[in-house]
Write a structure and sequence with these properties.
The protein has 15 helices and no strands. By secondary structure, it is mainly alpha-helical. It folds into two domains: 151 residues, Tetratricopeptide repeat domain (Serine Threonine Protein Phosphatase 5, Tetratricopeptide repeat, Alpha Horseshoe), CATH 1.25.40; 103 residues, Serine Threonine Protein Phosphatase 5, Tetratricopeptide repeat (Alpha Horseshoe). Helix 7 packs across helix 9. The protein is elongated and about 70 Å long.
């Protein structure tokens, strides 16, 4: 009896140490190898289903062993489920990530993309608004101190700039949000969002000027629309979307010859390069 009691007490006292060792072993190596995440932004066809399932199993262990890494692990689960085509589980994972830590930018961003794809534009606006409210520097610090994201980054992209990645994500979030606002007819909010995006100084300023001009056109403020669209075309004379709306403005003004010229130029640019915003709206789910 005394021996049994001694063994029971020893087991209880030793359990935390044993569990700690198991956790350390789990986190000391990434199972499976994650080099195939190298092209995580745009590539879809290079993901191995078996490895994705291994990654899912790994991140579930992280959630169990490391509660303080839950948000990051859930984000990785969301990415893996997305690549497996399991949208429902991906959405559930991103929602769980937000519940674990609501300060991250990417879960709101990804949920906004899902809402946009489903045609739920009001919901998409809400998610992208929340994403854009997240502090960029805080997000950078959160990601750099996370073992989950550090392992992913260092395994294949040691020189990846987390700060610049989030900045790029913010620009795309603005574009999705502006397109969603246009689709629900919220033109006042669209104009304000486009002007707010301009203040952030993103690289493709012509797109924000285009949306501002588009909003003004829909508000029937045609002179303002022409002014904004002209600025867009000064930034990028080949923006087919801005050319199209400039043609519409000319038509409203009764300048049919100019309207036709802009329309012809818009069609030519569309044939050569496609819509200026389409590449953004085709962006996939990301984890950073």
């Amino acid at each position: 009896m005394y021996l049994a009691c001694f063994l029971a007490v020893w087991h209880i006292l030793d359990y935390p140490k044993a569990k700690g060792n198991a956790v350390a072993q789990t986190m000391s190596r990434f199972v499976p190898g994650i080099h195939y995440f190298g092209d995580f932004v745009d590539k879809h066809d290079h993901f191995d289903e078996f490895k994705l399932h291994q990654c899912i199993a790994y991140h579930k262990r992280v959630i169990n062993f490391f509660p303080f890494q839950k948000s990051e692990a859930y984000q990785m689960l969301g990415f893996c489920y997305d690549r497996l085509g399991n949208t429902a589980m991906a959405i559930q994972s991103y929602q769980a990530s937000i519940k674990a830590n609501p300060e991250y930018f990417w879960p709101y961003y990804n949920l906004g993309i899902y809402a946009y794809r489903k045609g739920n534009y009001s919901k998409a606006v809400n998610y992208f608004q929340q994403a854009l409210q997240k502090d960029l520097k805080i997000n950078m610090l959160l990601m750099l101190r996370s073992k989950v994201f550090t392992d992913v980054r260092l395994s294949d992209r040691p020189d990846y700039n987390v700060f610049e990645g989030i900045k790029d994500g913010r620009e795309v979030a603005y574009i999705f949000m502006m397109e969603s606002l246009f689709k629900i007819g919220a033109y006042d909010q669209l104009l304000g969002t486009a002007l707010a995006g301009l203040k952030e100084g993103f690289g493709d300023q012509d797109i924000f000027l285009y949306y501002a001009g588009k909003a003004a056109f829909c508000q029937k403020s045609y002179e303002k629309a022409v002014e904004l669209l002209q600025l867009a075309l000064q930034k990028n004379p080949h923006n087919p979307d801005a050319l199209l709306y400039m043609g519409l403005c000319m038509r409203v003004a009764g300048k049919e010859d100019l309207a036709k010229n802009f329309s012809v130029m818009a069609r030519q640019e569309l044939r050569q390069q496609g819509s200026a915003i389409e590449k953004y709206l085709n962006t996939g789910i990301r984890f950073f």
